[in-house]
Design goal:
It is a single chain. The protein is of the alpha/beta class. It is built from twelve helices and eleven strands. It folds into three domains: 61 residues; 184 residues, Rossmann fold (3-Layer(aba) Sandwich), CATH 3.40.50; 81 residues, no CATH class. The chain has a seven-stranded parallel β-sheet, sandwiched between helices. Strands 8-9-11-10 form a four-stranded antiparallel β-sheet, with helices on one face. α1 packs across α2, α4 runs parallel beside α5 and α4 runs parallel beside α9. The longest helix is centred in the first third of the chain and has 21 residues. The radius of gyration is 22 Å and the shape is globular. The termini are far apart. 33% of the residues are buried.
Length: 346
């Protein structure tokens, strides 16, 4: 006999009824369950948490996320690139000029860019962007990091109190990551994206280490990765496929363009990995994928497929062709290799 799933609720039927009524009036039927659980969590917080600081943390976090979703929601159909780099880079520096050129070329091709909103490389990203095609996610710091003057639309400037909500939005709302030379913050942001990709918590994306002519910044970084992480077994050699190095702005833009040439997006449906494509690949290319990447398939083969039932019900790009496979959910560096091989199949 099938057991009924536990319903997330409080131990007070009157409150549960009020939550039910409020959630029904607050959003569509499709989303009512999630809102009901959010309201339930809020009530449980009121019942279980006495510390004002804890409640303030939850309150501020929810406000920051709500506002961010509101700002980004109208632009979800546009590819966006997050630009990370030092706030201390001077306008005359090679990385500043490279970031400005990179942003200009990206936005000219229809991409939008997202920066941290401050000076240095962030300022260069906003300066180079075509008007209306950039966002800035500023962080409020004790020494007052002021937003740079090149943000063309002030409604696309979001000021964050917490680094963790800011970093969440950086990744959630973008489709590619560009890292320029920088300090602790740049490395923190870069390693976070790498960790999310390595563990499958972030879908495959271009992650590009931008190194202007004459710079050895990423060369020294890569030496550390190889000698201290790869050779000592703290990371797999295939993890090196999670990122790429670009030494010109044009090379980086081309890499991002190529990444989304055939590959469109990825999701998991009941243990099956679904790779959506902008165009179908040939049977010959499919056979080559099965031969080259059989090591990351737990059983069966990579196959062409129409949209799965769950995708059709949610309206998730039902007209796009797809590849489906039983991915081992572990070899994410190899998964990025697979995406790049798909893009080179035409």
């Amino acid at each position: 006999m099938r057991r009924k799933p536990n319903v997330y609720k409080v131990n007070d039927e009157l409150i549960n009824k009020l939550i039910e009524e409020l959630s029904a009036k607050s959003c569509s039927i499709d989303n009512a369950q999630f809102l009901r659980e959010i309201y339930t969590s809020v009530v449980k917080l009121g019942m279980e948490v006495c510390d004002k600081g804890d409640l303030k943390l939850v309150n501020d976090t929810l406000k920051e996320l709500r506002y961010s979703f509101k700002i980004f929601s109208p632009f979800r159909n546009k590819r966006k690139v997050i630009i990370f780099g030092s706030a201390r880079a001077k306008p005359a520096s090679a990385e500043y000029k490279m970031a400005e050129e990179f942003s200009r070329k990206l936005t000219a091709k229809g991409y939008m860019i997202v920066t941290g909103g401050g000076p240095g490389v962030m300022e260069a990203g906003n300066k180079g962007a075509l008007a209306g095609r950039e966002f800035a996610l500023n962080i409020r710091l004790p020494f007052e990091q002021k937003p740079n003057p090149y943000i063309s639309e002030k409604e696309k400037l979001i000021n964050f109190k917490y680094f963790f909500t800011r970093k969440l939005i950086f990744v959630k709302e973008t489709d590619a990551t560009a890292l320029f030379p920088g300090g602790f913050g740049t490395n923190d942001e870069g390693f976070e994206v790498l960790t999310l990709m390595q563990t499958g918590r972030c879908r495959p994306r271009p992650l590009i280490l931008m190194e202007p002519k004459g710079s050895r910044y990423w060369a020294h970084w890569l030496r550390f990765i190889n000698t201290q992480l790869i050779q000592k077994g703290y990371a797999n050699r295939s993890d090196l496929k999670l990122f790429s190095v670009a030494r010109t702005a044009s090379q980086a833009v081309e890499y991002i363009d190529n990444f989304y040439k055939v590959y469109h997006s990825l999701r998991y449906v009941k243990g099956v990995t679904v790779i959506r494509l902008n165009k179908a690949i040939s049977q010959k290319a499919l056979a080559q994928l099965n031969q080259e990447f059989k090591d990351i398939i737990t059983n069966g083969k990579i196959k062409m497929s129409p949209a799965l039932k769950e995708e059709v019900l949610k309206g998730e790009f039902p007209d796009l062709p797809r590849l489906v496979m039983n991915f081992d959910m572990r070899s994410y560096g190899r998964l990025c290799e697979l995406v790049n091989r798909i893009n080179s199949s035409l």
